[in-house]
Design brief:
347 residues, alpha/beta, TIM Barrel, eight-stranded parallel beta barrel, 14 helices, globular, F420-G6PD/mer, F420_OxRdatse_Rv3520c_pred, Coenzyme F420-dependent oxidoreductase
């Protein structure tokens, strides 16, 4: 099992990079940089490429709506170049809250756009003269929709790799099925190992049945809050604000993917209550409404023995990469937590 960290998109930029340098020394395999409506992920990934030498760098994730497919491919090729072949492109649809609310771009056809983005990126990395006639993207633009002067182009530079790995963050059954079919990796959020098969098993099997064998096994990259020790029970509360934000406020009342996930996990009434409180501005009450049970089953918080049991549950559920989010009092404690996680996880 690979071990990595998921950087907070609200954290200090340079401070986080210095911590990653130290975490690389204790043996992490991968670091993921999120992007929502803070600093962009690409700037920090480029900075990390210069500061590190071994760890894989992952965008975790960039929304497909905010960049053209060709720009996503160019950016990934550039990051792969400056990191000497250590970059993985993590993409996702995000949701209407970010895509429409912050970027002003219609959130439409997530499945179709995801498939087309992946196909175009791979063609760009192969340095093909990209001719693509998709439902959502056409390269070059048809003459009757533009000047008619466009012609197929290929990337000027030679990428370090012509097959940069692509991971997709997905939650809904159809999107997870698509991920299992076309992606190198899957980045689910709030992963509940004991209920993963019930929630996603059929979708993963359906996608795997259509998967090109050349892609190899799907790398399941699950994130989890992390705190290891006999005195870390208070860290359960530290994890609740993020759960409350996503379940309660990351989307409209009738269109919130994280609320839907909590419901599929069996926390429907609780999710409704969190959403009601959050959308009415009662955020503290929404945070307090997040049950300890949900936090415990979607995190790695507790004594070493308990965390070892939780790691085994993630492995049993098929997780191949654990992305930890340390809930630490200081950078030193964060590094200690991750080092202990590295010791406890199977090689």
């Amino acid at each position: 099992m690979r071990i990595g960290v998921q950087l907070s998109y609200a954290g200090g930029f340079k401070e986080a990079a210095e911590q990653v340098v130290e975490l690389e020394r204790v043996g992490i395999d991968v670091v993921a940089v999120a992007e929502a409506y803070s600093f962009d992920a690409v700037s920090q990934l480029g900075y990390l490429a210069a500061k590190t030498s071994r760890v894989e760098l992952v965008s975790g994730v960039v929304p497909i709506y905010t960049r053209t497919p060709a720009l996503l491919a160019m950016t990934a090729a550039g990051l792969d170049f400056v990191s000497d072949g250590r970059f993985r492109l993590g993409i996702g649809t995000s949701g209407p809250q970010v895509v429409e609310g912050f970027h002003g771009v219609p959130f439409d056809a997530p499945l179709g756009r995801t498939r087309e983005v992946v196909e175009i990126c791979r063609a760009v990395w192969r340095r093909e003269r990209v001719r693509y006639d998709g439902k959502h993207y056409q390269l070059p633009l048809p003459a009757d929709r533009g000047t008619g002067l466009g012609k197929p182009l290929r990337l000027i530079n030679h990428p370090v790799r012509e097959a940069i790995p692509i991971s997709i963050a997905s939650l809904g059954p159809k999107n997870v099925e698509l991920t299992a079919e076309i992606a190198d990796g899957w980045q689910p959020v709030f992963f509940y190992p004991e209920r993963a098969a019930e929630v996603w098993g059929d979708a993963l099997k359906a996608g795997a049945a259509k998967r090109n064998p050349t892609l190899g096994p799907l790398d399941i990259m699950a994130g989890a809050s992390l705190a290891i020790g006999d005195d870390v029970e208070d860290r359960l509360a530290w994890a609740k604000p993020q759960l409350a934000l996503y379940i309660g406020g990351m989307g409209a009342r009738t269109r919130n993917f994280y609320h839907n996930l909590a419901t599929r996990y069996g926390f429907g009434e609780v999710a409704d209550r969190i959403q009601e409180l959050y959308l009415s501005g009662r955020k503290t009450e929404a945070i307090n409404a997040v049950p300890d049970e949900l936090v415990r089953h979607t995190s790695l918080i507790g004594p070493r023995g308990l965390v070892a049991e939780r790691i085994a549950a993630y492995a049993e559920a098929g997780v191949t990469t654990l992305l930890a989010g340390p809930l630490a009092k200081d950078p030193g404690e964060a590094v200690r937590f991750v080092a202990e996680l590295r010791e406890l996880a199977p090689a």
